[in-house]
Write a structure and sequence with these properties.
With about 325 residues, this protein is of the alpha+beta class. Helices cover about 20% and strands about 30% of the residues. The strands form two sheets. Strands 5, 6, 7, 8, 9, 10, 11, 12, 13 and 14 form a ten-stranded mixed sheet that branches. Strand 2 and strand 3 form a beta hairpin. The longest helix is centred in the middle third of the chain and has 12 residues.
Length: about 325
Protein backbone atom coordinates (compact mmCIF):
# COMPACT_ATOMS: atom_id res chain seq x y z
CA UNK A 1 0.00 0.00 0.00
CA UNK A 2 1.47 3.33 -1.09
CA UNK A 3 0.55 6.13 1.31
CA UNK A 4 1.20 9.68 0.13
CA UNK A 5 0.46 13.14 1.47
CA UNK A 6 -0.26 16.03 -0.88
CA UNK A 7 2.20 18.74 0.05
CA UNK A 8 1.58 20.85 -3.07
CA UNK A 9 -0.10 20.37 -6.46
CA UNK A 10 -3.49 21.45 -5.17
CA UNK A 11 -5.99 20.86 -7.95
CA UNK A 12 -3.83 18.27 -9.69
CA UNK A 13 -5.39 15.16 -11.20
CA UNK A 14 -5.17 12.06 -9.03
CA UNK A 15 -3.55 9.91 -11.74
CA UNK A 16 -0.98 12.60 -12.58
CA UNK A 17 -0.08 13.08 -8.91
CA UNK A 18 0.40 9.32 -8.41
CA UNK A 19 2.46 8.98 -11.59
CA UNK A 20 4.79 11.74 -10.39
CA UNK A 21 5.15 10.21 -6.93
CA UNK A 22 5.42 6.51 -7.84
CA UNK A 23 8.04 6.24 -10.56
CA UNK A 24 7.90 2.43 -10.89
CA UNK A 25 4.28 2.47 -12.10
CA UNK A 26 3.19 3.63 -15.54
CA UNK A 27 0.41 6.18 -15.98
CA UNK A 28 -1.79 3.55 -17.63
CA UNK A 29 -1.20 1.12 -14.74
CA UNK A 30 -2.14 3.81 -12.24
CA UNK A 31 -5.34 4.62 -14.16
CA UNK A 32 -6.27 0.93 -14.15
CA UNK A 33 -5.70 0.63 -10.39
CA UNK A 34 -7.82 3.72 -9.75
CA UNK A 35 -10.64 2.42 -11.94
CA UNK A 36 -10.54 -0.88 -10.01
CA UNK A 37 -11.25 0.96 -6.76
CA UNK A 38 -7.72 0.54 -5.42
CA UNK A 39 -7.13 4.24 -4.66
CA UNK A 40 -8.51 6.30 -1.79
CA UNK A 41 -8.37 9.99 -0.96
CA UNK A 42 -8.78 10.71 2.74
CA UNK A 43 -9.82 7.05 3.16
CA UNK A 44 -12.69 7.31 0.64
CA UNK A 45 -12.48 5.17 -2.51
CA UNK A 46 -12.03 7.22 -5.70
CA UNK A 47 -12.47 5.53 -9.10
CA UNK A 48 -12.06 8.58 -11.34
CA UNK A 49 -8.45 9.20 -12.50
CA UNK A 50 -9.45 12.85 -13.16
CA UNK A 51 -10.37 13.42 -9.49
CA UNK A 52 -8.84 16.68 -8.27
CA UNK A 53 -6.77 16.45 -5.12
CA UNK A 54 -6.14 19.19 -2.59
CA UNK A 55 -3.34 20.27 -0.30
CA UNK A 56 -2.97 17.92 2.72
CA UNK A 57 -5.11 15.18 1.17
CA UNK A 58 -4.06 11.66 2.21
CA UNK A 59 -3.80 9.41 -0.85
CA UNK A 60 -3.42 5.62 -0.69
CA UNK A 61 -2.87 3.26 -3.60
CA UNK A 62 -3.01 -0.52 -3.38
CA UNK A 63 -0.35 -1.70 -5.85
CA UNK A 64 0.25 -5.17 -4.42
CA UNK A 65 1.17 -6.71 -7.77
CA UNK A 66 4.31 -4.58 -8.01
CA UNK A 67 5.74 -6.40 -4.98
CA UNK A 68 5.43 -9.91 -6.37
CA UNK A 69 8.83 -10.06 -8.04
CA UNK A 70 10.76 -8.21 -5.36
CA UNK A 71 13.34 -10.01 -3.22
CA UNK A 72 13.52 -9.37 0.51
CA UNK A 73 16.76 -7.75 1.63
CA UNK A 74 18.00 -8.15 5.22
CA UNK A 75 18.10 -4.78 6.95
CA UNK A 76 19.88 -4.36 10.31
CA UNK A 77 18.50 -0.82 10.71
CA UNK A 78 14.90 -1.96 11.33
CA UNK A 79 13.93 -1.24 14.93
CA UNK A 80 12.49 -3.90 17.25
CA UNK A 81 13.25 -5.26 20.72
CA UNK A 82 13.84 -8.96 21.41
CA UNK A 83 12.00 -10.08 24.55
CA UNK A 84 12.93 -13.76 24.24
CA UNK A 85 14.83 -16.01 21.84
CA UNK A 86 15.75 -19.69 21.60
CA UNK A 87 16.55 -22.16 18.82
CA UNK A 88 13.00 -22.19 17.47
CA UNK A 89 11.34 -18.84 18.09
CA UNK A 90 11.66 -15.19 18.97
CA UNK A 91 9.28 -12.94 20.87
CA UNK A 92 9.69 -9.32 19.83
CA UNK A 93 8.26 -5.92 20.71
CA UNK A 94 7.45 -4.10 17.45
CA UNK A 95 7.36 -0.30 17.58
CA UNK A 96 4.57 1.66 15.93
CA UNK A 97 5.36 2.67 12.36
CA UNK A 98 7.03 -0.62 11.37
CA UNK A 99 5.17 -2.83 8.87
CA UNK A 100 5.33 -6.53 9.77
CA UNK A 101 6.13 -7.96 6.32
CA UNK A 102 6.70 -6.75 2.74
CA UNK A 103 3.67 -6.13 0.60
CA UNK A 104 2.08 -3.47 -1.52
CA UNK A 105 3.99 -0.21 -1.11
CA UNK A 106 6.20 -1.67 1.64
CA UNK A 107 9.01 -3.56 -0.04
CA UNK A 108 11.69 -2.73 2.52
CA UNK A 109 12.24 -1.59 6.12
CA UNK A 110 9.69 -4.10 7.44
CA UNK A 111 10.01 -6.25 10.54
CA UNK A 112 10.77 -9.23 8.27
CA UNK A 113 13.73 -7.34 6.76
CA UNK A 114 15.06 -6.79 10.27
CA UNK A 115 14.40 -10.38 11.34
CA UNK A 116 16.27 -11.73 8.30
CA UNK A 117 19.26 -9.63 9.29
CA UNK A 118 19.15 -10.79 12.90
CA UNK A 119 18.52 -14.47 12.17
CA UNK A 120 20.79 -14.77 9.16
CA UNK A 121 17.90 -15.99 7.06
CA UNK A 122 16.92 -18.73 9.53
CA UNK A 123 13.17 -18.21 9.61
CA UNK A 124 10.29 -20.58 8.88
CA UNK A 125 9.23 -20.96 5.27
CA UNK A 126 5.70 -22.18 6.06
CA UNK A 127 4.23 -19.09 4.40
CA UNK A 128 4.59 -17.18 1.14
CA UNK A 129 8.04 -15.75 0.47
CA UNK A 130 7.14 -12.32 1.86
CA UNK A 131 6.25 -13.61 5.33
CA UNK A 132 9.10 -15.85 6.57
CA UNK A 133 8.69 -16.52 10.28
CA UNK A 134 5.46 -14.56 10.57
CA UNK A 135 2.82 -16.52 12.49
CA UNK A 136 0.53 -13.55 13.24
CA UNK A 137 0.50 -9.82 12.58
CA UNK A 138 -0.38 -6.49 14.09
CA UNK A 139 -1.02 -3.29 12.13
CA UNK A 140 1.79 -0.97 11.13
CA UNK A 141 0.69 1.70 13.60
CA UNK A 142 -0.02 -0.74 16.43
CA UNK A 143 2.89 -1.43 18.77
CA UNK A 144 3.60 -4.51 20.84
CA UNK A 145 4.36 -8.21 21.07
CA UNK A 146 4.69 -10.75 18.27
CA UNK A 147 5.98 -14.33 18.30
CA UNK A 148 8.13 -15.34 15.30
CA UNK A 149 8.99 -18.88 14.18
CA UNK A 150 12.52 -19.82 13.15
CA UNK A 151 11.61 -23.13 11.54
CA UNK A 152 8.59 -24.87 10.03
CA UNK A 153 7.92 -27.16 13.01
CA UNK A 154 7.57 -24.20 15.37
CA UNK A 155 5.52 -22.31 12.80
CA UNK A 156 3.10 -25.20 12.38
CA UNK A 157 2.69 -25.78 16.12
CA UNK A 158 2.18 -22.10 16.89
CA UNK A 159 -0.30 -21.77 14.03
CA UNK A 160 -2.34 -24.62 15.52
CA UNK A 161 -2.56 -22.71 18.80
CA UNK A 162 -3.78 -19.60 17.02
CA UNK A 163 -6.30 -21.67 15.06
CA UNK A 164 -7.84 -23.16 18.20
CA UNK A 165 -7.67 -19.79 20.03
CA UNK A 166 -5.57 -21.12 22.91
CA UNK A 167 -3.06 -18.28 22.60
CA UNK A 168 -3.88 -15.33 24.87
CA UNK A 169 -3.50 -11.88 23.31
CA UNK A 170 -4.26 -8.75 25.30
CA UNK A 171 -4.07 -5.12 24.20
CA UNK A 172 -4.26 -1.77 25.96
CA UNK A 173 -5.86 1.09 24.11
CA UNK A 174 -7.14 4.62 24.66
CA UNK A 175 -10.51 5.43 23.13
CA UNK A 176 -12.96 8.28 23.03
CA UNK A 177 -15.97 8.16 25.36
CA UNK A 178 -16.70 5.24 27.71
CA UNK A 179 -17.91 1.76 26.84
CA UNK A 180 -21.20 0.62 28.34
CA UNK A 181 -21.20 -1.68 30.15
CA UNK A 182 -17.70 -1.05 31.47
CA UNK A 183 -16.78 -4.74 31.13
CA UNK A 184 -18.12 -7.22 28.65
CA UNK A 185 -17.74 -8.69 25.21
CA UNK A 186 -18.36 -7.58 21.65
CA UNK A 187 -19.36 -10.37 19.28
CA UNK A 188 -20.21 -9.66 15.65
CA UNK A 189 -19.48 -10.68 12.09
CA UNK A 190 -16.69 -8.68 10.44
CA UNK A 191 -16.42 -8.28 6.67
CA UNK A 192 -14.60 -6.03 4.24
CA UNK A 193 -16.38 -2.74 3.70
CA UNK A 194 -18.07 -2.79 0.27
CA UNK A 195 -17.48 0.95 -0.21
CA UNK A 196 -13.88 1.12 1.00
CA UNK A 197 -11.68 -1.92 0.55
CA UNK A 198 -9.15 -0.55 3.05
CA UNK A 199 -11.70 -0.91 5.85
CA UNK A 200 -13.43 -3.73 7.65
CA UNK A 201 -16.93 -3.35 8.99
CA UNK A 202 -19.47 -5.03 11.26
CA UNK A 203 -21.93 -6.98 9.13
CA UNK A 204 -25.28 -8.56 9.95
CA UNK A 205 -25.37 -10.82 6.91
CA UNK A 206 -21.90 -12.08 6.05
CA UNK A 207 -18.31 -12.00 7.26
CA UNK A 208 -16.37 -13.93 9.86
CA UNK A 209 -17.19 -14.30 13.55
CA UNK A 210 -15.24 -11.89 15.74
CA UNK A 211 -15.19 -11.89 19.53
CA UNK A 212 -13.47 -9.33 21.75
CA UNK A 213 -13.56 -9.32 25.54
CA UNK A 214 -12.93 -5.90 27.05
CA UNK A 215 -12.40 -4.33 30.46
CA UNK A 216 -12.40 -0.59 31.17
CA UNK A 217 -9.34 0.23 33.25
CA UNK A 218 -9.68 4.01 33.67
CA UNK A 219 -12.40 6.56 32.87
CA UNK A 220 -11.18 10.06 32.05
CA UNK A 221 -14.19 12.23 33.01
CA UNK A 222 -16.42 10.51 30.43
CA UNK A 223 -14.58 11.95 27.40
CA UNK A 224 -12.08 9.10 27.05
CA UNK A 225 -11.06 5.81 28.63
CA UNK A 226 -8.24 3.30 28.94
CA UNK A 227 -9.39 -0.18 27.97
CA UNK A 228 -7.93 -3.67 27.98
CA UNK A 229 -9.05 -5.85 25.07
CA UNK A 230 -8.51 -9.58 24.77
CA UNK A 231 -8.83 -11.11 21.32
CA UNK A 232 -10.73 -14.37 21.21
CA UNK A 233 -10.54 -14.31 17.40
CA UNK A 234 -8.04 -12.56 15.18
CA UNK A 235 -9.85 -10.67 12.44
CA UNK A 236 -8.28 -7.82 10.52
CA UNK A 237 -8.55 -4.55 12.50
CA UNK A 238 -10.80 -6.36 14.98
CA UNK A 239 -10.34 -4.12 18.03
CA UNK A 240 -10.48 -0.96 15.93
CA UNK A 241 -13.70 -2.08 14.23
CA UNK A 242 -15.37 -3.32 17.41
CA UNK A 243 -14.69 -0.20 19.48
CA UNK A 244 -15.77 2.07 16.63
CA UNK A 245 -18.94 -0.02 16.33
CA UNK A 246 -19.61 0.68 20.01
CA UNK A 247 -19.14 4.41 19.44
CA UNK A 248 -15.73 4.54 21.15
CA UNK A 249 -13.18 4.94 18.35
CA UNK A 250 -9.51 4.63 19.23
CA UNK A 251 -7.75 7.95 19.69
CA UNK A 252 -5.62 8.58 16.60
CA UNK A 253 -7.55 6.17 14.38
CA UNK A 254 -8.67 8.27 11.41
CA UNK A 255 -9.83 5.27 9.40
CA UNK A 256 -12.40 4.12 11.97
CA UNK A 257 -13.27 7.35 13.75
CA UNK A 258 -17.02 7.05 14.19
CA UNK A 259 -17.95 10.68 14.91
CA UNK A 260 -16.76 13.95 16.40
CA UNK A 261 -16.28 13.51 20.13
CA UNK A 262 -16.62 16.08 22.88
CA UNK A 263 -13.27 16.57 24.65
CA UNK A 264 -11.77 19.33 26.81
CA UNK A 265 -10.99 22.25 24.44
CA UNK A 266 -7.38 22.63 25.54
CA UNK A 267 -6.45 19.08 24.42
CA UNK A 268 -8.50 18.94 21.21
CA UNK A 269 -5.48 19.76 19.02
CA UNK A 270 -3.27 17.30 20.89
CA UNK A 271 -5.71 14.44 20.38
CA UNK A 272 -6.36 15.37 16.75
CA UNK A 273 -2.61 15.28 16.08
CA UNK A 274 -1.93 11.98 17.84
CA UNK A 275 -0.30 10.27 14.89
CA UNK A 276 -1.47 6.64 15.18
CA UNK A 277 -4.19 4.50 16.70
CA UNK A 278 -3.54 4.32 20.44
CA UNK A 279 -3.30 0.53 20.56
CA UNK A 280 -0.56 -1.61 22.11
CA UNK A 281 -0.28 -5.42 22.23
CA UNK A 282 1.05 -5.72 25.77
CA UNK A 283 0.49 -9.40 26.68
CA UNK A 284 1.05 -12.71 24.89
CA UNK A 285 0.76 -16.23 26.29
CA UNK A 286 1.31 -19.52 24.44
CA UNK A 287 2.59 -23.06 24.94
CA UNK A 288 6.20 -23.60 23.88
CA UNK A 289 6.10 -25.99 20.88
CA UNK A 290 9.10 -28.04 22.06
CA UNK A 291 9.07 -27.97 25.88
CA UNK A 292 5.32 -27.71 26.42
CA UNK A 293 5.98 -24.96 28.95
CA UNK A 294 3.49 -22.12 29.25
CA UNK A 295 5.22 -18.93 28.14
CA UNK A 296 3.90 -15.45 28.86
CA UNK A 297 5.30 -12.05 28.02
CA UNK A 298 4.39 -8.45 28.75
CA UNK A 299 5.75 -5.14 27.55
CA UNK A 300 5.10 -1.66 28.91
CA UNK A 301 3.29 1.07 27.07
CA UNK A 302 5.54 2.96 24.62
CA UNK A 303 6.45 6.55 25.33
CA UNK A 304 3.82 8.13 23.07
CA UNK A 305 1.00 6.28 24.81
CA UNK A 306 2.43 7.09 28.26
CA UNK A 307 2.40 10.76 27.30
CA UNK A 308 -1.16 10.41 25.98
CA UNK A 309 -2.29 8.88 29.27
CA UNK A 310 -0.69 11.72 31.22
CA UNK A 311 -2.58 14.27 29.11
CA UNK A 312 -5.88 12.41 29.55
CA UNK A 313 -5.38 12.23 33.31
CA UNK A 314 -4.58 15.94 33.61
CA UNK A 315 -6.06 17.74 30.60
CA UNK A 316 -5.92 21.09 32.36
CA UNK A 317 -2.10 20.90 32.35
CA UNK A 318 -1.80 20.53 28.59
Amino acid sequence: MQKLSVTSSSGNRLDKFLAEEIKILSRSRIKLLISQGRATVNYVVVTDPNHRIKYKDEVLLDDFDTAKNQDITPDPSVSFTILYEDEGLLVVNKPAGVVVHPGAGNHSSTLVNGLLSHCGGNLSSDNDKFRPGIVHRIDKDTSGILVVAKNDFYHCELSKQFACHSIVRKYVCFCYSVLRPLHGKIETLIARDKNNRLKMTVSKEDGRRALTHYKTLVEFSQFASKVECELKTGRTHQIRVHLSHKGCSLIGDLLYRAKNYSVPPNITTYLRNFCRQALHAYFLEFTHPHSGKMMHFTCDLPQDMLELEAVLRNPQLE
